[in-house]
Amino acid sequence: MTTVAGDAEGAMYRQKLDKVFRPASVALVGVSGDPHRLNAAPLRILRKTGFNGRILLVNPKYDEIDGIPCRPMRCPAR
Q1: pLDDT at 55 > cutoff 90
Q2: Is the pLDDT of residue 57 over 90?
Q3: Which helix (H) or strand (E) holds 45?
Q4: Pairwise CA distance, residues 59 & 76, whole Å
Q5: Quick check: 28 and 55 in contact, CB under 8 A?
Q6: Cα 9 from chain centroid (whole Å)
Q7: What is the C-alpha to C-alpha distance for residues 54 and 24, in angstroms, rounded to an integer?
Q8: Dihedral over Cα of 73, 61, 71, 16: its sign
Q9: SS3 sequence of 54-72
């Protein structure tokens, strides 16, 4: 038998895991605009599976990939 405290604790863990498994946005670093390259697959999979969140692409070689702006990687100055 599950207690109320156990249900609340389980809900808390599910809510935390949702942030990992159901993100509101993702950043793809090093994504390729060449559909034949392996590093093009994550964007293709996100699109194919209907991901509705924000997609941020990072690769200094491209201005955009598949209609999504692509940003160069910028590291903070030390």
Answers
A1: yes
A2: yes
A3: helix 41-48
A4: 16
A5: yes
A6: 27
A7: 6
A8: negative
A9: EEEEECCCCCEECCEEEEC
Per DSSP, the three-state class of 7 is: helix
Return the C-alpha torsion angle 46, 49, 54, 56, nearest 10: 10
Provide the token pair at 63: 């201005």
Per DSSP, what are the bridge partners of residue 64? 69
Q: How far apart are CA 2 and CA 60, in angstroms?
A: 52
User: Does the pLDDT value for residue 77 go beyond 90?
Assistant: no
pLDDT of residue 8 exceeding 60, the answer is yes
Q: Is 26 exposed, middle or buried (0-12, 13-18, 19+ CB in 10 A)?
A: middle
Structure tokens at 73: 């990687």
Residues 6 or more apart whose CB falls under 8 angstroms from that of 78 comprise none
- Phi, psi angle pair for 59, to nearest 5°: -170, 120
The length of the chain in residues reads 78
